């Protein structure tokens, strides 16, 4: 099944060239949730993507998997669980892969959730 419209002439990348192009994270005002935006290169074959949130000690706080997303721009909310005070530094990591290969290096960003005002 093809999601894209027939007049869509955007060039597609084969699996070996498909990458996460950008990754952004913005804490919501309640500091218990994180808005995540991710752009993927236009693909011929939908990839699988795993996004993981790590605290400053490298402990996994939450993760989400996307199996064959239909769009190149993905927006979602991650909930910060297990933290009474989420103040601190974090790393968000996105790993794009195909079950039969290839798997480029993950893209990661670091950000901070400031203390409550």
Entry keywords:
4-stranded antiparallel beta sheet; mainly beta; 3-stranded antiparallel beta sheet; elongated; Immunoglobulin-like; 117 residues; 48% strand
Overview of this protein structure:
The protein is mainly beta and 117 residues long. It has a single domain (19-113), classed as Immunoglobulin-like (Sandwich). It is 0% helix and 48% strand. It contains no helices and seven strands. It has a four-stranded antiparallel β-sheet, with no helix packed on it. Strands 1-2-5 form a three-stranded antiparallel β-sheet, with no helix packed on it. Strand 3 (48-55) and strand 4 (60-67) form a beta hairpin. The radius of gyration is 16 Å and the shape is elongated.
List the helices and strands and how they pair.
Elements: E1 20-27, E2 33-40, E3 48-55, E4 60-67, E5 73-79, E6 88-97, E7 107-113
Antiparallel strand pairs: 1-2, 2-5, 3-4, 3-6, 6-7
Short description:
The protein has 117 residues and is mostly beta strands. Helix content is 0%, strand content 48%. It has a single domain (19-113), classed as Immunoglobulin-like.
Query: How many domain regions?
Result: 1
Mind describing the biggest β-sheet? 4 strands, antiparallel
Can you tell me the CATH topology? Immunoglobulin-like
Question: What is the end-to-end distance?
Answer: 49 Å
